[in-house]
Automatic annotation (TrEMBL):
Molecular function (Gene Ontology), one example: arylformamidase activity
Protein name listed in UniProt: Cyclase family protein
Domain of life assignment: Bacteria
GO terms classed as biological process: L-tryptophan catabolic process to kynurenine
Classification via PANTHER family: CYCLASE-LIKE PROTEIN 2 (PTHR31118:SF12)
Signal peptide limits: none
Gene3D superfamilies: Putative cyclase
Lineage: Bacteria, Bacillati, Actinomycetota, Actinomycetes, Micrococcales
Length: 259
């Protein structure tokens, strides 16, 4: 079994830039003192517990269709039935299946434009199929660039993971599929797509690919880790999200079984 989940910690770049920062603090402790944060001492005996402040899209997480698709009747652009699909309505069976790992690390080689994601095009997927066989209905496609291994770092180095490209428009950005690519995957019967970058969308124009996938019910798993430990084919991918009512997304544990 391979763990494909990022570690959550305040010192790591697990929060999407601009969202509520992840926090983990002591609430109860065994006795007075012993920790730096203000805390209570439980009247129920000696134990410790901590509280979490966490955005739905923190660390390794899923995007439900409602993340980008408004509910019908709102009058908002791109509204549709998919907007009714929140986390608790996504079938777990859609989050389990044969993993197909498409390596896109080569897109980071050579010259890149600061703050712009290299494109994972339909042609990249078709080239993969030519070399490795066609995608099948129910396959879970995982885009591997090793972005997590390069940039998921504590402290100021962690800004390279998402903040620099997204906010400051400096430095290289993660590879990302475009809408045409997502539509092609859907035509192949792929209903769950993952990436080891912080978002399925690019750092410069992320909305369109989210609409293309989520509007037809495709589920995204973002901010995966350790995809380099998986073979191209032959493993079974699993994502187990928190069951969040009305959730536009949810953190969870991603892992794979090797044959």
């Amino acid at each position: 079994m391979v763990d494909l989940t990022l570690l959550l910690a305040e010192e790591l770049p697990c929060t999407w830039p601009g969202h509520m920062p992840y926090q983990q603090k002591t609430f109860n402790y065994f006795a007075a003192g012993g920790v730096d944060e203000a805390h209570m001492v439980s009247p129920c005996g000696d134990y410790q517990t901590r509280w979490l402040l966490i955005d739905e899209h923190t660390g390794t997480h899923m995007d439900a269709p409602a993340h980008f698709v408004p509910r019908p009747g709102t009058g908002l652009p791109d509204e549709g039935e998919a907007g009714n699909v929140t986390v608790e309505n996504v079938a777990l069976s859609q989050l389990i299946g044969p993993a197909v790992v498409i390596d896109v690390a080569h897109l980071l080689e050579g010259a890149t434009v600061d703050g712009e994601s290299p494109v994972i095009g339909r042609s990249d997927v078709e080239a993969f199929e030519l070399a490795n066989g066609d995608l099948q209905e129910g396959d879970i496609v995982l885009f591997r660039s090793a972005w997590d291994a390069k940039h998921y770092r504590s402290g100021t180095e962690g800004a390279h993971y998402a903040t620099n490209a997204l906010i400051h428009k400096t430095g290289a950005s993660w590879p990302a599929p475009v809408a045409e690519t997502m539509r092609y995957l859907a035509s192949r019967g792929v209903r769950c797509v993952g990436t080891d970058s912080p978002s399925m969308g690019s750092s410069h124009a992320g909305r369109e690919v989210h609409i293309a996938g989520l509007s037809v019910g495709t589920i995204f798993i973002e901010a995966l880790a350790n995809l380099s430990a998986l073979p191209v084919r032959g493993s079974t991918f699993v994502f187990a999200p928190l069951k969040v009512a009305r959730g536009t997304g949810a953190p969870g544990r991603a892992f794979a079984f090797l044959s």
